[in-house]
Amino acid sequence: MSGHSKWSTIKRKKGALDAKRGKIFTKIIKEIILAAREGGGDPDANARLRLAIQNAKGANMPKDNIERAIRKAVGADAETFVETSFEGYAPGGIAIFIECLTDNNKRTVASIRSVFNKYGGNLGTNGSLSFLFDRKGIFTIKTEGLSSFEDLELEMIDAGAGDFENDGDTITITCAKEDFGNVNRKLYELGIEPEEARLMRIPNDTKKLDLDSSKKVLRFIEVLEDDDDIQNVYHNLEMTDELELELEKE
Which residues contact 81 (CB under 8 A, 6 or more apart)? Predict the structure, then answer.
């Protein structure tokens, strides 16, 4: 499993997502607003909005919040968000790719630069590290209620899925960027609603650090993820068994 996906799984098991649910909702609402602003408020005619709503439901966002975000996007006083990204290195030479949605780019740049400076990272130029990551489709679904993992796997392979990870509670399905729509449609046809479905940046290769250095990198990543302007943080830190066990103790 990729470092990003494995780290996400560990956080989910620890309940960190519940503790930060307000921030998660903020990020999802911004994605809904941007999608509705760009493609209209009808999810049947707007694939990006449809996906954002799907992720909102997976995060247990109330229906009223979703509808309010759409109304906010298509109204005369709709907020305007801009997509931007940043690349750099965390302590220990770990590659970091950051995706943002912001209504104030100067604020976002200053905030991210401050975190890199404080935690000993190095902020690079755009495009300098993008070759280290591939964009792939990642789907997370609950195992509860599934009749057969093997049958699901066969259906998903036919739709274009390339990799599966089953940790007992959830199944993570990975596919090529080009197959994202096919896999998403197949899950819909099977009546399976993912907890999360999105395109992510998966590292081509990972880098191993000692335990203390790894924990410093993850702390650095958590600080970035706490910023409301930051939607996603990707990295190439190798999530070793030792690191996973240590994190589950905390």
Answer: 30, 33, 34, 37, 101, 102, 103
